[in-house]
Amino acid sequence: MRHPFGKTKSGHDVEALSIHAGDITVTILTLGAIVQDVHLKGVPHSVTLGSEDLAAYDGGELTYFGALVGPVANRIANARAPLGGDVLSLVANEGTTCLHGGPDGMETEIWTVESLSESALTLTLDLPDGKGGFPGNRQLRVRYSVDAPAHLRMNVEATSNKDTLLNIANHSYWNLDGRSTNTGHTLRVNADRYLPVDAASIPTGVVDVSGVYDLREGREFTAGTPVYDHNYCLNGAQGTLKHACTLTGKSGLSMRMDTTEVGLQVFDAGHVSSGKFIGHGGHPYPAFAGIALEAQGWPDAPNHSDFPSIEVSAGKTYRQETVWSFSH
Asked: Which PANTHER family did the record assign (predicted)?
């Protein structure tokens, strides 16, 4: 299914594309390749945060909600990154930090529909050399597909004609219960280590999980003081599809996430809301409305020689696969 979703402030048409299989129906926007809606049979609410108002995504408070962010997701300290003996000068959009590729990141782009079927769609995007300070004419492709009973799969590929940096992440927020906050959700993460951060949310090293940051056996969320906006160093090899986390709501609905990525950013949404914009359910989202689970490379990787590299050589292909599986 394909229908208009409105026009951006700059006059570009945005479409909503829906795919379905088994018990799952997913709607994707051509703006930002956004996962706008995820509905499951027998569940009366969307399990992802989103809005029917394009303005919420087009410069509104839901700018990153559900989007494919990049070309380098997460943060780069001081908006500077070494690459091939040079230092890239990027665009800061969070104090001195470059966040999610800067102010004109992929969440602002209109993707082209390459194909659409009942259960799958493919979108493409070309990023010009130098945009945001990142080198290379980059060609990106994302395929979203659904399988019975209730699986959503995302495959991302990208190439560049110059050596570049690529770290792409889906930035969906999840709330499996349809309640106003994430309270009562239990999250289990397959990681023995995580990255503590400084006041600018830049990693300071790699340490073993402990205390509230140990999610290996599962921990229940309670909306309150923000705690989580950290990268977890997933167990398992880079490029291998592996269990990243399992999120379970009070309702008993569960979402398992598998990915080929080495990191999982866990964000409790304590610092964000939808402001005046109405979300799914007919009301604005308050702080702690959901939990963002972003499969990706480690943040600020170019500035840490001991972090897994996010460099992609000219002519080589960046690949990511992430799968979300829902069950009662």
From this structure: ALDOSE-1-EPIMERASE, GALACTOSE MUTAROTASE
